[in-house]
């Protein structure tokens, strides 16, 4: 099972400086390996249309849809309370803020790792080391406040599979450059054999 890793970009059309497909295209050019389509408030037809647009700019098999409906794909990212979809979905992730919800999915996002501009007052911040302890052996993405090369590197050193970034890329004047900086800084640390 391939799980998301490296730089993972979450969409937010409301904060994007350009159309979200353009921002995502630039982020992918900069090194984003996966994309999670959020936009759960869009009417269904508009969400399907946006999903199709994103599939044209995201590497094949690397678009994950937030919510239990994969919109014609086979990868979803669930909120803490979303039901797990049927067996036709090959990759299931879940947003977690504590240890609940860790057992029935392929990977989790743990958040917030750092204080975040996108969701002020949301927290308290877990920190990368505490998130790693919480995840245990489960693949995890660090989400929340990962807005600098130093923070991305700290998450890699703590054992994150990747960093999930929304605001730093969506709000960027140069989303390709920001993605390049964060992707380059995130290098999973090799675990030495014991």
Automatic annotation (TrEMBL):
Any Pfam family the entry gives: TMP-TENI
Pathway: Cofactor biosynthesis; thiamine diphosphate biosynthesis
Keyword line: Thiamine biosynthesis, Transferase
Domain of life: Bacteria
One of the record's GO molecular function terms: thiamine-phosphate diphosphorylase activity
UniProt EC number: 2.5.1.3
InterPro entries: Aldolase_TIM, ThiamineP_synth_sf, ThiamineP_synth_TenI
Gene Ontology, cellular component aspect: cytoplasm
Annotated Thiamine phosphate synthase/TenI domain residues: 7-169
Function: Condenses 4-methyl-5-(beta-hydroxyethyl)thiazole monophosphate (THZ-P) and 2-methyl-4-amino-5-hydroxymethyl pyrimidine pyrophosphate (HMP-PP) to form thiamine monophosphate (TMP).
Protein name: Thiamine-phosphate pyrophosphorylase
The organism of origin for this protein: Paractinoplanes abujensis
